[in-house]
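Homework help board

Subject: predicted structure for assignment chain

Our instructor gave us this sequence and asked us to write out the predicted structure in C-alpha coordinate form, then describe one feature. I got the C-alpha coordinates but I'm not sure how to describe them. Can anyone check?
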Amino acid sequence: MKQILLLLFIGVASTAKAQKIDSIYVDLYTDSLKRGTYNYINIDGLLHNGRYLPLDSTHLTFTASAGQFKGNNLWIDKDFKDKKVSIKVVLKNNPSLYKEFDIYIKQKPDDERLKTSAEILDEIKHPSKNKQ
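My C-alpha coordinate output:
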Protein backbone atom coordinates (compact mmCIF):
# COMPACT_ATOMS: atom_id res chain seq x y z
CA MET A 1 0.00 0.00 0.00
CA LYS A 2 2.82 2.41 0.87
CA GLN A 3 4.48 1.67 -2.49
CA ILE A 4 1.30 2.55 -4.37
CA LEU A 5 0.96 5.83 -2.48
CA LEU A 6 4.63 6.62 -3.13
CA LEU A 7 4.22 5.96 -6.86
CA LEU A 8 1.07 8.07 -6.94
CA PHE A 9 2.85 10.92 -5.15
CA ILE A 10 5.81 10.74 -7.56
CA GLY A 11 3.43 10.78 -10.55
CA VAL A 12 1.56 13.83 -9.25
CA ALA A 13 4.80 15.64 -8.42
CA SER A 14 6.29 15.01 -11.86
CA THR A 15 3.07 16.19 -13.56
CA ALA A 16 3.09 19.37 -11.49
CA LYS A 17 6.73 19.96 -12.36
CA ALA A 18 6.03 19.39 -16.08
CA GLN A 19 3.34 22.09 -15.97
CA LYS A 20 5.64 24.70 -14.40
CA ILE A 21 5.76 27.75 -16.64
CA ASP A 22 9.28 29.13 -16.94
CA SER A 23 8.53 32.12 -19.17
CA ILE A 24 5.75 33.70 -21.21
CA TYR A 25 5.79 34.92 -24.80
CA VAL A 26 3.59 37.19 -26.87
CA ASP A 27 2.63 35.57 -30.18
CA LEU A 28 0.36 38.01 -32.00
CA TYR A 29 -1.60 37.11 -35.10
CA THR A 30 -1.39 40.65 -36.41
CA ASP A 31 0.90 43.67 -36.25
CA SER A 32 -1.82 46.12 -35.19
CA LEU A 33 -5.13 46.38 -33.36
CA LYS A 34 -8.37 47.29 -35.11
CA ARG A 35 -10.82 49.79 -33.68
CA GLY A 36 -14.43 48.75 -33.12
CA THR A 37 -13.72 45.04 -32.69
CA TYR A 38 -12.24 42.42 -30.41
CA ASN A 39 -8.53 41.73 -30.93
CA TYR A 40 -7.19 38.34 -29.78
CA ILE A 41 -4.02 38.61 -27.68
CA ASN A 42 -2.18 35.29 -27.96
CA ILE A 43 0.17 34.42 -25.07
CA ASP A 44 2.18 31.19 -24.82
CA GLY A 45 3.92 29.75 -21.79
CA LEU A 46 7.21 27.88 -22.06
CA LEU A 47 6.94 24.86 -19.79
CA HIS A 48 9.74 23.32 -17.76
CA ASN A 49 9.85 20.38 -20.21
CA GLY A 50 10.42 22.64 -23.26
CA ARG A 51 6.87 22.51 -24.58
CA TYR A 52 4.64 25.52 -25.11
CA LEU A 53 1.19 25.94 -23.61
CA PRO A 54 -1.37 28.48 -24.87
CA LEU A 55 -2.33 30.69 -21.92
CA ASP A 56 -5.66 32.37 -21.37
CA SER A 57 -7.44 34.34 -18.68
CA THR A 58 -7.51 31.27 -16.41
CA HIS A 59 -3.69 31.51 -16.28
CA LEU A 60 -3.14 35.25 -16.80
CA THR A 61 -4.35 38.63 -15.65
CA PHE A 62 -4.70 41.02 -18.59
CA THR A 63 -4.58 44.82 -18.28
CA ALA A 64 -4.36 47.53 -20.94
CA SER A 65 -3.97 51.29 -21.11
CA ALA A 66 -7.17 51.43 -23.19
CA GLY A 67 -9.98 49.14 -24.18
CA GLN A 68 -11.57 46.33 -22.24
CA PHE A 69 -10.56 42.68 -21.96
CA LYS A 70 -12.97 39.77 -22.22
CA GLY A 71 -10.76 36.72 -21.78
CA ASN A 72 -7.84 37.11 -24.19
CA ASN A 73 -9.84 39.49 -26.39
CA LEU A 74 -9.23 43.22 -26.17
CA TRP A 75 -12.06 45.48 -27.33
CA ILE A 76 -10.88 48.81 -28.78
CA ASP A 77 -13.59 51.44 -29.14
CA LYS A 78 -14.14 52.70 -32.70
CA ASP A 79 -13.52 56.28 -31.54
CA PHE A 80 -10.16 55.52 -29.88
CA LYS A 81 -7.66 58.20 -30.98
CA ASP A 82 -4.23 57.15 -29.62
CA LYS A 83 -1.70 55.39 -31.85
CA LYS A 84 -0.97 52.46 -29.52
CA VAL A 85 -2.16 50.49 -26.50
CA SER A 86 0.14 49.28 -23.71
CA ILE A 87 -0.68 45.78 -22.47
CA LYS A 88 0.51 43.86 -19.44
CA VAL A 89 -0.06 40.14 -18.83
CA VAL A 90 0.79 38.60 -15.45
CA LEU A 91 0.90 34.91 -14.61
CA LYS A 92 -1.66 34.39 -11.84
CA ASN A 93 0.25 31.74 -9.89
CA ASN A 94 3.60 33.53 -10.27
CA PRO A 95 3.25 37.33 -10.49
CA SER A 96 7.00 37.68 -11.02
CA LEU A 97 6.41 36.32 -14.56
CA TYR A 98 4.86 39.01 -16.72
CA LYS A 99 5.16 40.73 -20.09
CA GLU A 100 4.57 44.36 -20.97
CA PHE A 101 4.32 45.40 -24.59
CA ASP A 102 2.78 47.97 -26.92
CA ILE A 103 0.58 47.22 -29.90
CA TYR A 104 -0.11 49.95 -32.44
CA ILE A 105 -3.56 50.79 -33.75
CA LYS A 106 -4.28 50.17 -37.43
CA GLN A 107 -4.32 53.56 -39.17
CA LYS A 108 -5.62 52.71 -42.64
CA PRO A 109 -9.32 52.06 -43.19
CA ASP A 110 -10.62 48.56 -43.92
CA ASP A 111 -12.06 49.52 -47.30
CA GLU A 112 -9.69 47.53 -49.49
CA ARG A 113 -11.53 45.56 -52.17
CA LEU A 114 -10.23 42.02 -52.59
CA LYS A 115 -10.14 40.41 -56.04
CA THR A 116 -12.75 37.79 -56.85
CA SER A 117 -11.80 34.24 -57.85
CA ALA A 118 -12.80 35.05 -61.44
CA GLU A 119 -10.49 38.10 -61.51
CA ILE A 120 -7.55 36.09 -60.19
CA LEU A 121 -8.14 33.27 -62.69
CA ASP A 122 -8.44 35.82 -65.51
CA GLU A 123 -5.08 37.36 -64.51
CA ILE A 124 -3.47 33.90 -64.58
CA LYS A 125 -4.92 33.13 -68.01
CA HIS A 126 -4.06 36.56 -69.45
CA PRO A 127 -0.97 37.93 -67.71
CA SER A 128 -0.20 41.51 -68.65
CA LYS A 129 3.14 42.34 -70.27
CA ASN A 130 3.95 44.67 -67.34
CA LYS A 131 4.03 41.75 -64.90
CA GLN A 132 6.33 39.52 -66.97
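Reply (TA_rk): Your C-alpha coordinates look well-formed. For the description, you could write something like this. The chain has a mean pLDDT of 86. That's the kind of observation they're looking for.
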